Each structure stands twice: as structure tokens, then as C-alpha cells.
Amino acid sequence: MGFYVLGLGAIGTLLAYHLRAALPPSQSVTLIHKSFKNAWAAHRRCKGVLSMETSGVIQKCGGFHIEVLEKHERPGAGVAFNPSLARDQMRNHVPVADDIHTDPIKAVFVTARTIKTTELLSQLLPRLNASSTVVLLQNGMGVFEELVQQVFRNPETRPNFILASNTNGAWLKGTGHVVYAEHGTLEFGIVSDPRRRDFEASLIDETKPKFERHLNLDDITHPGDSAHHQYHGLRETVAALNSLHALGAKWCPIADVQNAMRRKLVVDAVIEPLTALMGCRNGALFRDRGSANILQNICKEASELFRAQLEKETESWLDALGPDVDSSRIPVGRMPLELEAEHLSEQVRQAVRRRGNISTMLFDITHGRPTEIQYLNGYLVGLGKQLGIPTPVNTILCDLVRMRRAVPVDQRL
């Protein structure tokens, strides 16, 4: 089986390196470049070998396949990169049939920028089906819902999805050279199956005491399963993720992963826009009353939203049980303590203690790139509209970031 990596920034490069290092040669790892120009630039700098630097020590890993997602007459086709061609030869090069890949993709790890995800997966759509697995490993929230609404509308043909929350820190020193700056965790979970297969069945196995219940690959599929062909890729993808011990990978219930994503969302929804607006490093925040007040207000708004969202999801779940079930006798979980405003605030303060870090949004603003504000504070604003809860602080931060991008950084009076 083969795995594809779409998005070769710092986290994508780090993930690709560890996948190739952990998996046997029989399982291929393919790096997807958006254009031949990008593929050629990467080849010139790293010759198909990725480097990971930790505390000054550099380790290298090769053996990758490379495909280019440049628009082709055959929708969704990936063209194998031919390093023997000079850059100017590629413009008029017509690839041979064997170099044009249209076979279904079993698993793709998406680490591209959130704002590009829908466009990129739309291009890959002809190669994705109900047997495919898409792993979303990005900042912010809301992209899964966007994909379901705009790209994968039919639940019967929709790929399996894995959501992940990553706290590993990395930055690119150059193309194909990632600096692993901070060890963290990679929590991931499988989105509920529209075909109603329970991937977490072992957690409710009443034949075992609770402390012996663990997520089990056989709940995904197993030999002899009539739908083995449809879920085999998902099982292999979960197994591959579980092998990434160096990244602190852990398969968790999807509800736990979503809460981890909510916590990380709030951290980013505070740090990213404030550093971008003020033009400062992360560590400069919260030394003054102004930024501390904004921190408290964002965390308060987010906590209220999460509480209402979880209550609504619980009500929908209870309603789906049917009239024969006495819902009053079912214990309903409380709001997780880590989503309370004071706990969210403390987590943000812990994050800014890494004083030298420069936020992604500040980098975007200073380099004239679109920001991902719509998937950070914008997600909270949209959630507030759905739930009928005002979000004045997050709303104005969205507007200020959009305004900041419209005003040149070096504009002189």
C-alpha cells in the first residue's frame, strides 16, 4: 500500500520523513508537488532526500516517490517527476503513459495550508473513493465540514476521514530540510462512519473492565470481513500513524481529538491574530493589560460556544436513539474541564512562553500571503452564528486581520 503527502511545509516534511523512516520499503511514500516548477526546485536542493535536524544533528531519509499535481488533460492525474529532464525541457515535455498516474489513492495525509485544502482535494477527487482515507493534519477547524459540503457531498462515496491534532513544533530551514524544534504529541481519531461501522466498538465492550478496553484495529476491519476491501486502507493508515512513536502519535476516540482540536484552536485564535496585528513575536504578548483582556474575552467566548455546541450534539444523539429508549436514564457527560475559559487561558499563556516563536499569521502578513483567519477566529464567529451566541471580540479580530493584510506593512505616511 502507498501513502501520499500533500503539503510539504514544515509539518508535511516532518511527517513524510517519519513515515518513510518508520514504514517498510514495501509501503511507498509519495510526495505531491503542486507544479513541475516546485518539484524541480525541490529536486535541485535536496535530490529526493529529506533532512531532519534536531539539536544540531541532521538525519537524512530518501526513497520517496514524487508526483506532480499540475493540471493535466486527465482529471486528477498525478505525473511522475522525471529528474533527468532539465527545467526548461519540462515546459514542452509530454509524459509517457506509464508516468501518468490515475489509480485510486488509498491514503493521503493533508498538511497543506487550510485555505488551499478544498481546491487541492477537488483536483484529486477522481482518485479518491469510499475506500480511500484522508488524514487532515492542519491548523484551525471547519475544513472537514467545508469538504463535506463542497467536495464529498455523497456519504456513500465519501472517503474515510481521520482528524489529527498536532503539537510538535518544526520550521523549514530550506526545501526538504526541517528543524524539529519542539517535541509534542500527534493525537488522531477516525470520523464517524456514514455507513455506521463503529470504529470504537472495543471501548464499550462490557465483557471487559473499563481499564482493559482499548481501541482495536480489528474494529476497523479484519480478514474475513465482507467489507474488508473498503476499510483495509483505513486500517493500514491508522497502523502507520500508530508507528510514528517519535512524533508522540496516539489513536484516540474522535471526541477526545475534537476537544484537543478545540483547545489548540483557541491557542491559535489568540496568538496568531494578535502577533500579526502587532508585528511581534509570541513572547511579547500578555505583558500588558490590553492583550491580557483580549485573551480572557476570546477564551470566554470560545468556552461558551463549546458548551452550547456539545449540548446541541448531545441532544441530537439522544434524539437519534428513538422513542423506545429512556434517555433520562442515560448518563450525559459534562463540559470537559479543559474547555472552561480559565483552563483555555492558561494553555495560551503556556504556549507564549516559547518566546522566540514567530506565528504563521505574522509570516503571512509580512510576506503578503492570505491568512487562515477564517479557520481560526472565523470558525468561532461562524459557530456563534449557528448557535445564536454573539462573538464580538472574535468578529473584530477577523476584521482587523483582513484590514491589516489590505494595508501594506511598510506603508509610509
Provide a descriptive summary of the structure in words.
Helix content is 39%, strand content 16%. The chain is an alpha/beta fold. Strands 7-6-5-2-1-8-9-10-13-14 form a ten-stranded mixed sheet. A four-stranded mixed sheet has the order 4-3-12-11, covered by helices on one side.
Helix-strand sequence: EHEHEEEEEEHEHEEEEHEHHHHHH
The number of distinct β-strands equals 14
The proportion of residues in beta strands is 15-25%
Mean pLDDT: 90
Distance between the first and last residues' Cα: 59 Å
Tell me the helix content: 25-40%
Count of individual helical segments: 11
SSE class: alpha/beta
Radius of gyration: 22 Å
Strand order of the largest sheet: 7-6-5-2-1-8-9-10-13-14
Low-pLDDT segments = none
User: Which outline best applies?
Assistant: globular
- Main pleated-sheet profile: 10 strands, mixed
Summary?
The protein has helices at 10-22, 36-46, 114-124, 143-150, 228-242, 254-278, 289-320, 341-352, 360-366, 377-387, 392-406; strands at 2-6, 28-33, 50-54, 57-61, 65-68, 78-80, 100-101, 107-110, 133-136, 160-166, 169-174, 177-182, 186-190, 249-251. The chain is of the alpha/beta class and 413 residues long. A hairpin with a 2-residue loop joins strand 3 (50-54) and strand 4 (57-61).
Topology:
Layout: E1 2-6, H1 10-22, E2 28-33, H2 36-46, E3 50-54, E4 57-61, E5 65-68, E6 78-80, E7 100-101, E8 107-110, H3 114-124, E9 133-136, H4 143-150, E10 160-166, E11 169-174, E12 177-182, E13 186-190, H5 228-242, E14 249-251, H6 254-278, H7 289-320, H8 341-352, H9 360-366, H10 377-387, H11 392-406
Parallel strand pairs: 1-2, 1-8, 2-5, 3-12, 8-9, 9-10, 13-14
Antiparallel strand pairs: 3-4, 5-6, 6-7, 10-13, 11-12
Helix pairs in contact: 3-4, 6-7, 6-8, 6-9, 6-11, 7-8, 7-10, 10-11
